[in-house]
Amino acid sequence: MRSAQGQPARRRMRTGARLGIAAMACVAAALALASLVAGGDLLDLRLPGGLPLGNLLAWLVPCGLSAAALALAPVPGRALRFARVSCVFAVAWLPVSLALADDLALNFSGGRGTAWLAFSLAVAACAAAALPTAALAALIRRRRAGAADRRTA
């Protein structure tokens, strides 16, 4: 299925479903962040394959924020593109981190640590900015649609 501009059409989800998905993603990110802030021995727990639980929780925070932004972003627009880029960076954070560290515990040495820190800060900033950007774009789009409906009525 293609849109009028010749691009693949994105199925429109109802607002309630979008808000539900965004809320679940935000709750998952908040719980992961709370677990990381609280600390404890649970973060050192090794998952099958040897990955520490703390690394998985750290990955879940930007993924949750980016997924929420992706759910909220209005269909065609810059906010959707920004949410997609944020999602790609968030998903790529753990594989890139593992490649830079060469171990599952994410222990860095030398210049790789600096590169990892810069990449991690970029991912965190992108994920943190994507959610309010998408929410604001959705709010503006909704208000404009409401104003257009009032003018035609």
Summarize the structure.
Helix content is 72%, strand content 0%. With 153 residues, it is mainly alpha-helical. 23% of the residues are buried.
Q: Separation of termini?
A: 31 Å
Low-confidence stretches: none
β-strand percent reads under 5%
Helix fraction? over 70%
Number of helices: 4
Order of helices and strands: HHHH
Shape: elongated
User: Count the strands?
Assistant: 0
Number of domains: 1
Query: Largest sheet, described in full?
Result: none
Class from secondary-structure proportions? mainly alpha
Q: Radius of gyration, rounded?
A: 19 Å
Mean pLDDT score, rounded?
A: 85
Keywords: Membrane, Transmembrane, Transmembrane helix
Transmembrane segments: 55-75, 82-101, 113-140
Description:
With 153 residues, this protein is mainly alpha-helical. It has one domain (15-152). Helices cover 72% and strands 0% of the residues. The chain has four helices and no strands. The radius of gyration is 19 Å and the shape is elongated.
